[in-house]
Structure formats: structure tokens, C-alpha cells
Amino acid sequence: MFSRKYIALGRVVTCWEQIVGPEMAARAHPVKIRYRKRKGPDSCPCATLEVAATSADATVLQYQTGVLLEKIERIFGDRWITSIRFVHVAANLPRIDASPKKSLTDDQKSNLSLILEGTCDPDIHKRLESLGSLILLKNS
């Protein structure tokens, strides 16, 4: 049960920018999925997605709830998330900027490309390259 729950949240987090768009993805993020079982003869499990957002962003997203649920259904192929609940976060929290401030040296770039040259999937290659860049910058 727990492994399915965290895998589902991971899938939502991975596709979050496609669901809400790049601008809103930077300001609101999914934090939890709550599962519950419906009562009745067609009792299939359903889930509520909890999204952390400021009051203003939650209001905007609340108006788009139907569209967001349709996008989630289209991406995952099933209507297992049936509602969205918004959790308030303070508007004055500092934003975490994941983009590196410094750039890699030529040696670091060449070493990273040598390490990743066997990666066939372009999406995984891009993610590993980003992760490797952040690690190298942090260690230097």
C-alpha cells in the first residue's frame, strides 16, 4: 500500500509542470495523496491530491480544479485522483532556486559527458546531467 502511494505521488510530482503549467508549478506543488474507499456496489478506491499553495494561488487553482483533474486523468489514463485539496503555505517563504549560480569548468563538463555517454533515454540523460552538474557545483 505504502509503495503504491509514494509511487503515485512521484508520478504526479514528475508530471506536475505538464498538469499546471510552468509558471504555476514554480509557485504550488503537490505534497500528499490521501486514499479513501467509496461505499457502495461500485466501490473503487479514489484519492485526494493535496497541493501546497499560497491563498492567491490556491484560489486560481481552485477555479481550474476540473481542468486539472482532466489533465491528470489524461496523463495517467485513469481517474484515480477525484478531488484536489489546497494546503496553505506562507507567501513570504524564500523561493528555492535550483538553477546553478556558477557554471561547470570544461574538465567537469567533459567528465560528466563521459560518465553519461551510455545513457540512451534522452529524458533520463537530461535529468542525470542536471543532477550531476548540481553535485559537481556543490562539491567545488
What does this structure look like?
Helix content is 51%, strand content 19%. It has 140 residues and is an alpha+beta fold. It folds into two domains: 2-88, GMP Synthetase, Chain A, domain 3 (2-Layer Sandwich), CATH 3.30.300; 106-139, no CATH class. It has a three-stranded mixed sheet with strand order 1-2-3. Helix 6 packs antiparallel against helix 7. The termini are far apart. 7% of the residues are buried. The mean pLDDT is 82.
For the biggest β-sheet, the strand order reads 1-2-3
CATH topology of the largest domain: GMP Synthetase, Chain A, domain 3
Highest CATH level, the class of the largest domain: Alpha Beta
If helices are DSSP runs of H or I spanning 4 or more residues, what is the number of helices?
7
CATH architecture classification of the largest domain:
2-Layer Sandwich
Order of SSEs: HHHEEHHEHH
Give the integer mean of the pLDDT values: 82
Q: How many domains comprise the coordinates?
A: 2
Number of strands: 3
Protein structure class? alpha+beta
Rg? 19 Å
As a percent range, the share of strand residues is 15-25%
* Amount of helix: 40-55%
How is the biggest beta sheet arranged? 3 strands, mixed
**What is the general shape?**
elongated
User: Ranges with pLDDT <50 over ≥5 residues?
Assistant: none
* Cα-to-Cα separation, first versus last residue: 41 Å
